[in-house]
Amino acid sequence: MTTKRLSIQRYLPEQSKTPFWQEFEVPFDDSTSILEALNHIKEDMDGSLSYRWSCRMAICGSCGVMVNGEPKLGCKSFLREYPGTISIEPLAHFPVQKDLIIDMEIFLEHLAAVQPYLINDSQDSNQTHKQTPAQLAKYLTFSDCINCGLCYSACPQFGLNPEFLGPAALTLAHRYNLDSRDQGKAQRMVQLNREEGVWTCTFVGYCSEVCPKSVDPAAAVNQGKVESAKDLLINLFKR
Amino acid sequence: MMEKRVKRSDEPIWWALFSAGGVCFAVFVPAAILFIALLIPLGLLPAETLDFERSRGLLFSFPGLIFIGVVICLPLFHAMHRIRHGLHDLKLGRDKTNKVIAYGAAIVFSLLALLGFVLGIM
Asked: Which residues contact B99 (CB under 8 A, 6 or more apart)?
């Protein structure tokens, strides 16, 4: 069986203040994913390696890492795709807790800030809401997000300013704003209209490139800019 | 956690000018360059196309005012918006200062162009 060299960035705060690189020679075939390679290292080579994972089929969004400097899901990237040594680092722009485990707290705060759930206070809100296929199509692609955080690692503006709500949160806000069953747009627009809302985005577009579920957050954020600009205009004439 | 200081950004105004300028940069500026900087100097159009009397008549008229808007003013806002955000990406200067200088310059040069127009029609 052929092998491949993996260079992994380790960080063990109880042993050393600085991260270091460790190399492993891992056996692989055409079907070996980065996640499987990490599992092999943990089981057979170095049990101290820490990383997050769960579903191994691009649904849970836990195994995001930087593979050769690009944000990737470990379960959806394969050793066969990379010639030479593969470097694995924790996701960029997040604080690192240990090895490949990042602190996602700020990301979760940003998600909560946009109230990503149906808001509907109408009388019949306890009844089943009907929705036509056309109404569903408006937001369907934006609802595939698995909260893996790859788009935050890809976003240079989030890297410069972590207060930026970021691609996934803004996309979810847009997804609920587009939902015919929802009435919470006015509440969410307050967050979108902020400097750290849609307006920190400079349409780099890398978020959409790295998204493992093809959600296209860049499109959602920029449609959000149009909504925010409209919101400003409407507010000018309201008073 | 959720209730941070909520202040509306003034970015939509600059973004709208940037977008309008982008359209002008894509459509009108290349056309202006094609005629003024290529076709006429290369002799593909007769030199009289833009002789003094003709160009003065064209510029100091209502279409001339629109020409100034779409070839000078709006592209200025577009370019300065890019420069301002480029400086932010390169971590150069403070954004508030960059903003005043960038859009201030766009406003000053736009007003100068319009002043030239007003002087021309008088």
From this structure: B14, B84
Tokens 């503006």 locate to: A157
Q: Which of A123-137, A186-200, B24-38 has the lowest mean pLDDT?
A: A123-137
Which residues of chain B neighbour A236 with C-beta distances below 8 Å? none
Between chains, do A229 and B85 touch, taking CB under 8 Å as contact? no
Closest CA–CA distance from residue A183 to any residue of chain B (Å): 19
- Joined tokens for residue B63: 């279409």
Q: Tokens in use for B92?
A: 């150069």
Task: Name chain A contacts of B88, Cβ cutoff 8 Å.
Answer: 160
Residues A120 and A131 grouped into a single domain: yes
ipTM (interface pTM): 0.82
Q: Identify whether the C-beta of residue A10 lies closer than 8 Å to the C-beta of residue A20.
A: yes
Q: Does B8 touch chain A (CB under 8 A)?
A: yes
What is the second-level CATH architecture of the domain B13-121?
Answer: Up-down Bundle (1.20)
pTM for the complete prediction?
0.90
